[in-house]
Amino acid sequence: MLARAACGLGIGLVAGVVGTAAITVSQLIAMRIQGRTPSRSPAKAVEKVFAIRAVDDPAEARLAQWVHWGYGTSWGSVRGLMTVFGLRGPWADTLHWGAVQGTALVMLPGLKVAPPVRQWGAGEVVLEGVHHAVYVTAVGLTSDALCRRLAAREEPRRIPWSLLLGGAVAESVRRRRARRAAPAIAALPEVARTWSRTVAERLPVGAGR
């Protein structure tokens, strides 16, 4: 189970990078259409949690990008674990979307770095959901594909050493019994001949001879 979990984490991190790239493209398209600048909320959240502050605006923009990619990559590990433990496809994507979307709607407003959700407006909430749908779809497709590819290339499982040891002991006992039984088996023809001669000698001779 530990090995499977580690495999799921690795697959999820790779899928998380792919998903973060996908949502980045989605957000860039939306920002260009709406004429907005990239959000600094991720950087402000980290600054508030860890009591740090960027030295200037370019540094804060870089911090926001690092947080964006790290956050998206780490959420991929959740989907990777779901994949390796058998939860895949649309149902897994739906659960993953709910977790990511719900966290986004609660975390930033809770840290007071974004307005409360009731002030966002329906269009903003829907757009956020679309971005996260793009993310979880990319993560899910990548995670499931990597898991299937890994399963197809999986080497045959090794036989446990305890089973090999038990088989060796059983084979040794069988050979020892066979060696003990060999003289008795070899003596059977002689015993049969002796028995037939004894029976022939004890049979009565015919009267007419």
Question: Can you offer a commentary on this structure?
Answer:
The chain is mainly alpha-helical. Helix content is 79%, strand content 0%. The chain is built from six helices and no strands. It has helices spanning 2-34, 41-50, 57-84, 89-110, 122-152, 161-202. α1 packs antiparallel against α5. The longest helix is centred in the C-terminal third of the chain and has 42 residues, at 161-202. It is rod-shaped and about 125 Å long.
What proportion of the residues is helical, as a percent range? over 70%
Distance between the termini: 89 Å
Q: How are helices and strands ordered from N to C?
A: HHHHHH
Q: For the report, how would you describe the main beta sheet?
A: none
Given helix and strand content, the structural type is: mainly alpha
Could you tell me the number of beta strands? Answer: 0
Q: Outline, from the CA principal axes?
A: rod-shaped
By oligomeric state, this entry counts as single chain
Contiguous helical run count:
6
What's the mean pLDDT score? Answer: 84
What percent strand? under 5%
Radius of gyration: 37 Å
What are the segments in which pLDDT stays under 50 over at least 5 consecutive residues?
A: none
In short:
The protein has 209 residues and is mainly alpha-helical. It is 79% helix and 0% strand.
